[in-house]
Queue: 2 jobs
Job 1
Amino acid sequence: MAILKVARLGHPVIRAQAEPIPKERIVSPEFQRFLDDMVETMREYDGVGLAAPQVHVSAQVAVIEVTDNRRYPGEGPVPLTILINPKILAASKKQRLDWEGCLSVDELRGQVPRAESLEVEAYNRQGDKVRFRAQGFFARIIQHECDHLGGKVFLDRMVTLATLTHLREFVRYWQEG
Ligand code: ZN
């Protein structure tokens, strides 16, 4: 396995529309290795999600996992979830405003409104089509990662930039408890 280099905001790959993965490619050893590398990279940088464009690959792949995460204390857990060609089929009208950060938007946090719950369809790493519902923090991460696959970052979803905060100031002035 390998830790992949993270693309930051400003690299064109972050703003590109990612390509879908042909179903038959999913089980190939080369693609399976890429999935392992994405998981390892997410864990290395204490991410709760990582989309392929964030590692310079313009493909519709995202990995999500929340354990006892240092960057997001008090959230989760969410088991390791791999989404290939994900589609959000339905999302609740009810939204919630909460903090997000991004490995490609280094050292910044901001409040983003997201649907509280949603239904998503995707291929898993076995190449099976799965469909499930998610809510709360899990639903938020799915929306954040699916945005990456369309070339969007959380900054685009902020209603106002008034809450945009550097990480150190976030911990100092905004974090509860
Ligand atoms: Zn991100």
Job 2
Amino acid sequence: MADHILVERPAGYPGVQIIRFNCPDKKNAITRAMYTAMTSALQAADADPDIGATVFLGTEGCFSAGNDLGDFLAVAMGGGMPREVIEFLYALVRAAKPLVSGVDGLAIGIGTTMHLHCDLTIASARSHFRTPFVDLALVPEAASSLIAPRIMGAQRAFALLAAGEAFSGAEARAAGLVWKVVDPGQVEEETLGLAARLAAKPPEALRLSRDLIRGDREEIIARIDEEARHFSARLQSREARAAFEAFMRR
Ligand code: COA
């Protein structure tokens, strides 16, 4: 999995750490090892006074196709939701410093829901946010069942999380999942510039403001756990296994 997650400190953007999906051949699908690398980078950012903000980026035309379905199929044979996924979600929720994401193109499953934990998301109009949880015989994850209805209302949250409807960049912005829509070629620059501006602000005032805005972390963690219990049971169901095998056989 060498370098499928790149952790970078970009020149010209002081105080910014990038966590970049770098497996375009697999549409940046996220394996357990990639989750672990991202969790470590988030924890390292919180411990490093030189880092003021973390940015999530993908590759051109693809943020991420979500969980690696091969990994999930392996887990479905024996266990529950991979521990590595849960630990990454906890790290996202507990991150003490701002999280900014930049999306160009595909953003599927957790490639969509992780932005609910980001403070600001920039996307291109051609972005395609979609969560086919129910089609895979699964349930929503990442506390999306709690946060999405709050920010976008019940109908849009249902369309996204249960009906599996795709949202364009503009629709995601109208729903409150995205802050700003820019040209595909500007996604990285805008995202990094935004993160650098946040990293330059008084850190304690920013931390307190962020905590107040994001609300009760324990409520979010509790929902992650509740969803994970259902998700784990669903992963081992006959219908989920059939859906995964159908994808792998294509
Ligand atoms: N897990 C594992 N591999 C994946 C993947 C995933 N989530 N998404 C894409 N890939 C792999 C494909 O198997 C393919 O590999 P191959 O070249 O070895 O055959 C490669 O990435 C390219 O994908 P492909 O499907 O050919 O690209 P596409 O442009 O036609 O379609 C998607 C892209 C994202 C629409 C399609 O790949 C897809 O539906 N992926 C599954 C998304 C998903 O359900 N995610 C989990 C949500 S919980």
